[in-house]
Design brief:
The protein is α/β, with parallel strands linked by helices and about 110 residues long. The protein has helices at about 5-10, 25-35, 65-75, 90-100, and strands spanning about 15-20, 40, 55-60. Strands 1-2-3 form a 3-stranded parallel β-sheet, with helices on both faces.
Length: about 110
């Protein structure tokens, strides 16, 4: 899909499911959060550096299919998360501002 159609599909999702075991910069997590979509992902695989468990998604232990299944059922049964309106376009500055807002941080916040 081209990016506008792909982003429309992601933005309509209840959650993005990204159980990576290792990802030094999880772009899909960044894009999902920038679009206001919560993430179900793996703790300890860099996803947890972007996702706050229970706030912007759910984190499960790596290699634990039961925990992943439980998290998916939780979302399927209606677990909700604060959603942000996606930016009109996925411009880098707007995406970063949306991501910071979703994380509860003010624009210009320095991340260490």
């Amino acid at each position: 899909l081209d990016k506008p159609r792909l982003y429309a599909v992601v933005a309509a999702a209840e959650a993005s499911v990204l159980p990576s075991l290792m990802d030094n910069l999880p772009n899909t997590v960044i894009e999902s959060l920038a679009l206001g979509v919560p993430v179900v992902g793996t703790a300890g695989a860099s996803v947890d550096e972007l996702v706050t468990h229970g706030q912007s998604g759910l984190l499960v232990p790596p290699g634990d299919p039961e925990a992943l299944a439980d998290a998916l059922v939780e979302v399927w049964r209606g677990r909700t998360f604060p959603r942000v309106a996606p930016p009109a376009e996925m411009e880098p500055e707007r995406a970063v501002a949306a991501l910071l807002g979703f994380a509860g941080l003010a624009p210009g916040t320095r991340l260490v």
